[in-house]
Amino acid sequence: MSRFRLYPTPAQQVALLEQCRHARYVWNLALEQWSFWTRDRGPTPAYVEQARQLTEARAAFDWLRAGSQTVQQQALRDFDQAVRNLHGGSHRRPTWRKAGLHEGFRIVGSQASRITMLSRRWAAVNVPKVGWVRFRRSRSVPEAKSYRITCDRTGRWHLAFAVIPPPIPAPGTGGVVGVDRGVTVSAALSTGELLTCPSLSDREQERLKQLQRRLARCRRSSNRRRRVRAAIAKLHARTRDRRKDWVEKTSTDLARRFDLIRVEDLRIAQMTRRPKPKPNPEEPGTYLPNRRRAKAGLNRGILSNGWGLLVQRLEHKAGGRVEKVDPAYTSQTCSVCGHCAPDNREIQAVFRCTACGHQAHADVNAAVNIAAGRAVSARRETPRRVSPKREPQHATSA
Fold first, then answer.
1. Which helix (H) or strand (E) holds 106?
2. How far lies 160's CA from each of 6, 81, 136, 215, 251, in Å?
3. pLDDT digit string (tens) for 23-61?
4. What CA–CA distances, in Å, run from 116 to 126, 135, 251?
5. Which of 16, 48, 110, 186 is deepest in the core (most CB within 10 A)?
6. How many CA atoms lie within 13 A of 321 on its CB side?
7. CA separation for the pair 363, 327 (Å, rounded)
8. Structure confidence at residue 323 (pLDDT)
């Protein structure tokens, strides 16, 4: 997907937000009808029936008729596709769209090709019911049959064309690299490179803490609270932009340098779940400590390093040259002799093999195992430890 920064005028921003409001209303209305399904009521209205109901609603309500019919019908098509994806098992259940959080709509068909070039750096797109809106030509504008206009929490508008860029060709050198993802080091390569995803600076983090304290003291629904939330959203957007930029540059560099890229097959959604509460059997109604604060910090560290986005962009750019390896015991196995033991990694950063004495950075050692495609099994390669109680008793001479 090729995305560009959109620069609408104040009057056009009002019109764009109105289109977003209509698309969000139609989506939520379709979701409400779909949520009322029960076994005794029969099937809920499909897209054709919902489109007929939309036509009747546009004839009855002037505020809905003032919007673009293309935008509203496309919201129904998007919801129908979301339900199909749910039944196909590729996506999660559709959720409600909220104001200020899900601002956007999609244009499909002949209207999506109405683009004019203003200069070498500027172009304009004709949005229905809005007019010609300028956007920055940061790259060549692709030919697409649809585009989506979105607005983030900081008020920035973007134009995204639905195109699939060609994959990056392999260099043909036969190089293989293993990528170990971590919290302290975002990505460690088997070549010895340590890559860190950029985040907020110390000064920006202090600024974020001050804004969060100020937000806790603000009155709800006040103008001051709205301004503080906008300032916090701007800092979070800065972090998100830096993370995306790092992921794009890192994935492009790996796809151009290596023929085969091996990564850990991690289930990030399961790894970042909240810990379940532990009921106290001695005192009903109370709960035991479950280390939820420590788990929340770990989840933030995992998500802030872009584990899933990095692999996703690698698969988009490198195609079938990305392989996923079982991550079991890759951080406890020596990349030289293959000895696997928990004592090999006493601390987070240093790996020291207790069998051969090999010492290296722990993440680099794991990346070398991943590059070799080693899915180590503890039962198969780790020597069984004999319990002291079961050690054979040697007879002593009298």
1. strand 103-108
2. 10, 19, 12, 33, 20
3. 999 999 999 999 887 777 778 888 999 999 999 999 999
4. 8, 10, 32
5. 186
6. 27
7. 12
8. 93
Report d(CA 358, CA 371) in Å as an integer.
18
Report the 3 state secondary structure along 144-171.
CCEEEEEECCCCCEEEEECCCCCCCCCC
pTM of the model: 0.82
Q: Which amino acid is at 98?
A: K
148 token code pair = 């989506």
pLDDT attached to residue 374: 64
- And the tokens for 5? 């920064």
Q: Which of 337, 341, 338, 359 is nearest to 350 (CA)?
A: 359
Mean of the pLDDT values across residues 69-92? Answer: 93
Query: CB of 383 within 8 A of CB of 355?
Result: no
Q: What angle do CA 16, 19, 23 make, to 5 degrees?
A: 140
**Of the candidates 8, 258, 39, 315, which has an alpha carbon nearest to the alpha carbon of residue 156?**
8
* Residue 108 vs residue 392, higher pLDDT: 108
CB 134 within 8 A of CB 127: no
Token code pair at residue 301: 């560290």
Query: Taking 80 as the threshold, does the pLDDT of residue 381 lie above it?
Result: no
pLDDT of residue 145: 87
Average per-residue pLDDT for the chain: 88
Q: What is the pLDDT of residue 148?
A: 94
Per-residue pLDDT tens for 137-194?
Answer: 988 888 888 999 999 988 999 999 988 888 999 999 999 999 999 999 999 999 999 9
Output the CA–CA distances (angstroms, integers) from residue 335 to 58, 109, 175, 345, in the order listed.
67, 55, 18, 13
Tokens of 244: 């995306």
- DSSP run (H or E) holding 246: helix 223-257
Q: In sequence order, what DSSP letters do the residues of 33-88 get, joined into one string?
A: HHHT--TTT-PPP-HHHHHHHHHHHHHH-HHHHTS-HHHHHHHHHHHHHHHHHHHH
